[in-house]
Amino acid sequence: MPKGSPELTNARKEEIINACEKLYRTRSFKDITLKEISAETSFTRTSIYNYFQTKEEIFLALLQREYELWNAELEDMILKFPALTKEEFADKLAHSLERRAQLLKIMSMNHYDLESSSRPERLAEFKVAYGNSLRAVMRCLERYFPEMPIADKQRFVYTFFPFMFGIYPYTFVTEKQRTAMERAGVNYAFMTIHEIVYNCVTGLLGK
Asked: Which end of the chain is less congested by CB atoms within 10 angstroms, N or C?
């Protein structure tokens, strides 16, 4: 692979993103450093700056990849299933997000910081993946609910996407949070990603 080739650049970026993802499984966003990310790669910390200028840009790229994987799953669903009931669609959409816990985690905790600390060109690349997600969900609605008015389809999309930001905190609760809620007298009903998404989608689509 020639030095400086697009293939090498993409491979290096993927290696950095993979290193970030590995650390994020057990560490918090604020505790992860560029030095630690570079230690998980085959090259130096200085080399990372050839691809990403900040930690936030790396996380934004990870979030972009998560959106792209989700988009591909939605497109595959459209191809495989020519028709779905409201309940079947809600079930499949819920399962697709159940497999993208990393997407939901980053969305809920670090989204604003990632965007504000990334260069415009990196942000634009991310927005392409995000926009494709909006369009993929809209295509699902067009495929499975053709009789649904366009205004209702738009309302679904622009209600569901903000809702996604709150899924992770409601489905992944630490022991510290549980204890605090018990002391505060807050009744908490644990729900899985699938349950909370299914309930939201069926509610938005109507019974």
From this structure: C
